[in-house]
Design brief:
Layout (H helix, E strand, L loop, with lengths): L21 E6 L14 E5 L3 E2 L36 E11 L5 E5 L3 E3 L2 E3 L7 E2 L3 E9 L1 E7 L4 E2 L25 E6 L3 E3 L7 E2 L3 E7 L13 E3 L5 E8 L1 E7 L9 E5 L17 E7 L21 H7 L6 H5 L1 E9 L1 E5 L3 E3 L5 E3 L9 E5 L3 E3 L10 E3 L14
Parallel strand pairs: 1-9, 10-17, 18-21
Antiparallel strand pairs: 1-2, 3-8, 4-5, 4-9, 6-7, 10-12, 11-14, 13-16, 15-17, 18-19, 20-21, 22-25, 23-24, 26-27
């Protein structure tokens, strides 16, 4: 109680507070994503017959808060509406009222059929005369689902169209596009096509589908999944690997090389170099240098040669090469050395002594390490044939028998 001093004529007026106050709540429903925030999505201590607060607490003409309203980035089919899951569109509010007989009536701000009853859209109440809970209702929007060969390539005709468009199911590949696409309502079924007639990747084998370019297989052709906004489906490929065998053509054995990729340029990386007495290794060839098929136009295998180059030369594809494999053949060059000739005579002690009285048809010649040698003719001395098997020293100087 407060005491006041009366100094003149005074009028007292009684003021009465309402016997109760109300709340208004906006709920996101099944697909809304806006947060629950006081004075944004729920409002308390509202006086009877006060103006109903609007969703988001937005004043007319102000910029919409992106935490509560969708933008072209967050949900392009639901711009400026209460925020929801991409792929769903806000269609309006649903609320109920209860009369004095406890009869519940459903109200909608949009035309719909609910529990067998058709409802005509109503305006939201303008004043607060009770507690209200407004629930957001949603409908699926159309979304685009993308299908990617993910490192592979589409099998196209000369016009840039799929050779077998029916094999892609509901997906359509527009000319020049890297993705095939289909349009479907969010939450509806998408059936995954088989890949073998619409895409390929040489040196790889298709093993299934996934939803990220780097993920493992999640689905197989023929399986179904539900469309949603941003869904991208990627082919998953398994890298094929191949083996190369080596025929050293009389040289030391060389082990097979395994695990080579179709496009790899490491065919000879880590491969031992064979040796053969009396010969120098010239390199590896796709055709046996000692067969009738070989000619000088055939290049030796180099570090830039891919497995694909070798397979195609033999008429093999990335699939048939798995069973047949590749054999490389060694080519050898016989080692050479120079031998020098001088005319000599044998003295009384049986020693060879240089003489100037004779002459030679040649003074020197190159010889091969394995081939036979024909000695030059001395005047008055019959020609002799000399065989020098494996006589060339590492220094290149011939040894005598």
């Amino acid at each position: 109680m407060k005491k006041i001093a009366i100094t003149g004529k005074t009028t007292f007026s009684a003021h009465f507070a309402p016997d109760h106050v109300f709340v208004v709540i906006y709920e996101p429903g099944t697909h809304g994503t806006f947060p629950s925030t006081q004075d944004k999505t729920f409002f308390v201590n509202l006086d009877p017959h006060s103006t109903r607060p609007t969703f988001g607490g937005q004043a007319a003409g102000t910029q919409l808060d992106p935490d509560y309203f969708d933008t072209a980035t967050s949900n392009p089919k639901n711009i400026d509406n209460p925020k929801g899951i991409p792929g769903y569109e806000f269609i309006g509010w649903h609320w109920t009222t209860t009369d004095e007989n406890n009869v519940v009536t459903h109200h909608f701000s949009f035309n719909t059929e609910y529990e067998g009853v058709t409802y005509t859209a109503e305006a939201l109440p303008s004043e607060v005369d009770r507690n209200y809970v407004f629930e957001a209702w949603w409908q699926p929007s159309e979304v685009t689902v993308y299908l990617s060969p993910n490192g592979g390539e589409w099998i196209l005709d000369s016009n840039g169209q799929l050779v077998n468009p029916d094999a892609a199911g509901d997906f359509v590949l527009e000319r020049g596009q890297s993705f095939a696409m289909l349009t479907q309502y969010c939450g509806q079924i998408v059936e995954l096509p088989s890949a073998d007639k619409i895409m390929q990747r040489v040196g790889w084998r298709f093993v299934g589908w996934t939803d990220s370019a780097w993920e493992a297989v999640k689905w197989q052709p023929g399986e179904t999944l539900l469309a949603y906004y941003g869904l991208r489906i990627y082919a998953v490929w398994q890298r094929l690997t191949y083996n190369v065998s080596f025929n050293s053509n009389g040289g030391t054995p060389v082990s097979d090389k395994k695990g080579i990729g179709w496009s790899d340029r490491n065919v000879l990386q880590g491969v031992d170099t064979p040796t053969k007495v009396g010969y120098e290794f010239d390199g590896w060839y796709i055709v046996n240098p000692y067969s009738d098929r070989f000619d000088d136009s055939i290049d030796k295998v180099s570090n830039n040669t891919t497995y694909a180059d070798l397979a195609r030369y033999n008429g093999l594809t990335d699939e048939t090469a798995l069973a047949n494999g590749i054999i490389l053949y060694a080519k050898w060059l016989e080692k050479q050395a120079t031998i020098y000739y001088r005319p000599v005579v044998m003295d009384a002690q049986g020693r060879f002594v240089k003489t100037t009285g004779g002459s030679l048809t040649v003074s020197s010649e190159n010889i091969y390490a394995i081939s036979t040698l024909t000695a030059p003719r001395f005047p008055g001395i019959e020609q002799h044939r000399l065989s020098l098997p494996r006589l060339v020293r590492c220094s290149g100087q011939p040894a005598l028998p």
